[in-house]
Amino acid sequence: MTARGERVAQVASYGGDVARCGLVAPASTDELADVLARASGAGRRITFRGGGCAFDTQSLNRDLVVSLDRLRGLRFSAGATRVAAGAGEPWGELVRAAHLRGRMPPVVVTTAFASVAGTTSGLCVSRWTPVHGPDGDHVHAVELVTARGRRLRLTRDDAALPAVTGGLGYLGAITSVELALRPHAHDQVETRLVAAGGIGEVLAACAPGALPAGGEVTAYGALLPDLRRGMAFQSRHVSGQARRPFRAVHQPRSALRLLGELLLVTHAGTRLVGEIAYRLRGERHVDSLVDYTFFMDGDTRFRRLGRRLGLALRLVQQSFAVPVAAGHELIERARRVFDAAAVVPMFSDVLYCPADRALLSATHGMAGFIVSFAFSPRTRGRLARIERALRQLSRDCRALGGRVRLTKHVHADPDDLAAMYSATLPRFHQLKRALDPDGAIRNEFLERVFPSLAGRPTP
To answer: Which of 129, 153, 168, 315 could anchor a disulfide with 125, C-beta 3.0 to 4.6 Å?
Structure first.
């Protein structure tokens, strides 16, 4: 059966994976419910897609991909304390509309192009996660359409909400997300360098105890390619300050940023950029709210331009959550593993994340550091070495009591992942059977990392 409005298309992930499939983009919730009911009844394999910012194959499928991009709209509550955003609403539009009302979401992802439902299903984190948790912590309700076309409203009292937030679209289509908004009168962000040196010093500056009380200041760290040194920064919202832009990072549309992105696709360029950033580090920067918030738009624009020009700009990024006490050891093991594989991360960062309750969250019931490593492999041989190295680091992460995050790329043995998520995966199974008893919604990514979801034994 061909769905109404379906066309054959080639869709891609942010990381560069591609799949040829049937693609349909319903214009309303009614149309979506009809498409899902018909497709599931015909035995189609259904996967959902938002803004196209998934790193791995979370939103790819070779049968039927349902795009939620046309489900837009913003409805603010009285006093703008909450907003109900359509699934396909880009974060850039939400932030601008909320800021006009003197409000902001507590946690905002780092690219304006990501969709609200996409980040809710991925349980994304960002610069303000150390003080406010992941974005899913601020979801009051979601509207969900199941594979049979049934419409549900899930609130914080519903047991299914912690499975839908972070569930990567495996339980149904999120059509609307109701988010909390905080008072916000500022239009700038001040960033100060608070540590530069060894990894221990950087981690100490990023730990929760290093932040002042009140939740008005956040912290994050950037690691140099050698993974022996780094820098830690603290940020706070301000107004009326003279601009002192952090040009290399918070100027996503600048020529300098474009040059930096070009250099980062090579090992030599990566080392050069890291060394220049370290040696020429500034003590204080003041950027516009939008440039600071959506600083990854520089990378997004660079990769979209490159793909339009036919360039193969592969991106591999994997994130690991470990207890705070294990952060230094994870980074040390990563350094040894990457050195042995002769690969250099183009970007590495560290962020503290409080514990949360989402079932497929790497920080479910466990606060800790999220450490991310990004690579831009230009050859198949280098890509294979990176994947092997990340698989080994995933094994090390398990040994340190941590988990691989499912939002980015995942290169890990299924038995390691099954052990990491053993406390919550059975409950996720139960909710899958309840909300999608026909198993119509499929996810090649989740079924690869958790073979039991597809009814296959773990290798």
So the answer is: 129
